[in-house]
Design a protein that fits this description.
Layout: H1 16-32, E1 60-64, E2 70-72, E3 75-76, H2 82-93, E4 101-105, H3 111-123, E5 129-131
Parallel strand pairs: 1-4, 4-5
Antiparallel strand pairs: 1-2, 2-3
GO molecular function: transmembrane transporter activity
InterPro entries: ExbD
Organism: Thiogranum longum
């Protein structure tokens, strides 16, 4: 008697669990990845010290009062527009290309005015920027 052999079928691979695992890994890596945003304006925070590092004449000091008006070199800038502020900074700097910038703002100054001053100095290529603060008289109490 002759027995007939059944043809062997190829084993079937179920891809559904593999796709599920890859999808879970993709979601995990997307959620766990941190995106670092680089700031366009680089700020050097001021440090408290008793030493005066530079002469007052060689520092661009931008004063911002409580209403958001700008003062450069003791003179008020005509208006609060960005281009006007940049022109006043250029006039103050003269032919100097690099100058440290100190922004002194009243604590009730509009946030927009401080950002506008930082933006103007950044657009003019001034990178050494600091924000002036007062040290508490009674040790922070």
């Amino acid at each position: 008697m002759k027995l007939r052999q059944t043809p062997t079928d190829e084993p079937e691979v179920n891809l559904t669990p593999l796709i599920d695992v890859v999808f879970i890994l993709l979601i995990f890596f997307m959620v766990s990845t941190t995106f670092q945003r680089e700031s366009e304006i680089k700020i050097e925070l001021p440090e408290a010290s008793a030493d005066v590092a530079e002469e007052r004449d060689e520092v661009l000091e931008i004063l911002i009062d409580a209403e958001g008006h700008f003062f450069i070199g003791g003179e008020q800038v005509v208006n609060n527009e960005l281009e006007t502020l940049k022109g006043a900074i250029r006039k103050f700097m003269g032919d100097k290309k690099e100058m440290p910038v100190v922004i002194r703002a009243d604590r009730t100054s509009p946030y927009e005015a401080v950002i506008r001053a930082m933006d103007a100095t950044s657009q003019l290529g001034l990178e050494q920027m600091s924000l002036a603060t007062n040290q508490p008289e009674n040790g922070g109490e």
